[in-house]
Amino acid sequence: MSLRWLLRRLGLVLYTMLVVSVIVFGITQVLPADAATTLLGENATAEALAAVRTRLGLDQPAAVQYWHWLSGVVTGDFGTSMRTGQPVGPVLMLALGRSLLVAACALLLVVVLAVPLGVVAALRRGGAIDLGAGLLSYVGVSLPEFVTGTLLLMLLADWLGWLPATGYVALTDDPADAVRHLVLPVLTVSLVLMAHISRMVRSETVDVLHSDYIRAARLKGLPPGRIVVGHVLRNAMLPVVTVLALDVGYLLGGIIVVEEIFAIPGIGRAVITAITSRDLPMLQAAALIMAATYAVANLLADMALSVLDPRIRYD
Amino acid sequence: MTLHRRTLLAATAGLAALPHLARAADPVRGGTLRISVDQAASVLNPLLTRVIPEYLVTGMLYSGLTLLAPDMTAKPDLAQSWSHDDALTTWTFVLRPGLTFHDGSACTARDVVATFKAILDPKTASPARTNVGPIDRVEAVDDQTVRFVLKGPFADLPVALAYTNAKIIPAAIAEGDLKQLSQKAIGTGPFKLVSFEPDRRIIVERNPAYYDKARPYLDRVEVLVYPDPTAEASALLSGDTDLISLASASEFGRLANVSGVVPLRIPSGQFLNVNMGCDVKPFSDMRVRQALALTVDREAMVGFVAQGYGTPGNDSPMNSAYHFFAEQPQRKPDLAAAKKLLAEAGYPNGLDLTMIASDVPGTRTQMAVAMREMAKPAGFRINVQTMPHATYLDQVWKKGSFYVGFYNMQATADAIFSLLYTSDSAWNETRWNNKEFDALIAEGRMTGDDAKRQEAYAKAQKLIHDEVPSVIPVFFDLLAARRAYVEGFLLNPRAAVFAFDQVWLGAGAPKRPA
Q: Which residue of B has its CA nearest to A261?
């Protein structure tokens, strides 16, 4: 992993973000209705629409609007939301922080639970754990989040009353309550991820177990524990790392449904509101953040791969 | 000049109610109330708010000259009394003495004048501009007295001035940079803004300098955003929140049978309608519109679209929640008559039509689909097309000739008719342009004589019922729910009006850190 490679990759990340911003801006230009229409709703008169468009700068040509936006971003100014008039940067950072918290907890839970579960299932193929894990996986994969989320909500919050139903409490406000509010959304998201990660770990492990070098290790007389940890796991984890990196992207954009159900004001909800209200600066910035997380997560995965597998080199 | 009769009535009614109030549990001071709302309160500037959660928030932070009581009369707010000349063209409002804004500065007639200048300025784009009446100019007579000079006689001015966007702001802001009000709030309302995070939580605290020394009772109010109705109901059931300001019909059943939760329900003038472009074929022929109206089973519509929480509509936008409501014979489904009317209009083989319904709220689509099925046997072959709300606003609303509309109740007969149905209305969706109707509405607004107004509005309601510029199959009830310990909360049929200064927490309320 050379510095040149790293710089080149970072350059690519920036280029990706620029392309994304152009595409998102272009799409908003062809969408029917603009921020003025949605702001005024059924209070719109031709006069009011014109006044609001002037105020928001929507009366200027698209290229000029994009240029204003881009020159702001370069200096770190993401503009103000057309919907609320709040500065976009701080508002989105706050939302991103919440989504990251859910994502980090979910990812941790998945790595801690799904990886061992997959390995054990592979080692004891056909056993009770394998069947149980398989069943859980199929349920997790086949049920969409809004079903599992609602079921968990009704079971743990409505009927048993163990957890608060929904809502978001900041860690800084009341840490204990914040954690209680996190449990349901994290469980819901993890269930989906856990399913496919544990299935993947299982099948990779099974493949590796059948490989020649594991047979060689066995014949060499290595104890089973060392074989699993030192040889099987290390090789089986390679594709899993790549998939986990993609999951980070899913966690930051794809959990919109979960954020909606549990009323978490994260980045996913910010995007939905920005789209329905045609709030350009907010949408642009949110798209950039998502693109950046995808790109950076992939970069980190590539770096992790080279650590796991010394044969992989980047220069 | 005479003291306005309604003010006098309000004052005497208030006096009569006092001994009764004393017998009920007395309000107690203190506590935090958590209210849930179903969408973000994005806009904080009271002149520009446009959805109910925003009205709810700005209603706590700001006051108007008058306020709208649940019986649709104007009550004193910042103005303690008002009077008018015989022609109903010059109105004088006297402010309460010693009013202050949240920043401690005095609120005087000058602020009122500056606020109305900002409202009437097209550049502000305030929805109030077309809703506060035919104001020509506003003048400060002295620090405490404001004079409204109108372009013509207007009997409903005190009620019109209670409009949700006609909130008084400091002159310095009204004449300067209005943008400031998107982040902070400087009003005269019962509560002061603590924090504003539009998509999650808005917090306000008691304003100790409120003009009524006894109120508000609450120390603090938190407004929490729950976009998912199931989650919103669960939060109330689990005790996370204390009050659902407006509950959805789909969750109301779940809230109705739980101990500790009190469901609230009142009839309202909120309705769905099917607008028809009366200036284009086939709707330019009144018989086609009447035929469509005759296919609709309104009782079934209440059950299907409002899940039973509503009342049948009768093709007039007014119902019993309004003053000057005049009941018309209820239109019942009559497919034979509908077919006959269609044939007479020149469509013996029926008609092919495309009805457009936006996806917000979801009831628009439900009604469109129900109407398609109900109208089919009479020969209407309706193709229902749904679209995202933003697209609808841009391409169909006010432009299309066959689509589903959804409207909140307005405060007066004049407001709803001159918003939607007169030839010069702000949103003349149906292009009905009926001169006789216009004259009746004008007559109603120009006289202070209630008997004459009743007569004019009764004729107008008969006309709109008979000629059907839009089919109005269903009115919605307003639904809400509170924990049993939340006292003093009243639903207002206008939906956009709340009075949280009247709310207090009774026995059993949870203790929350302030």
A: B228
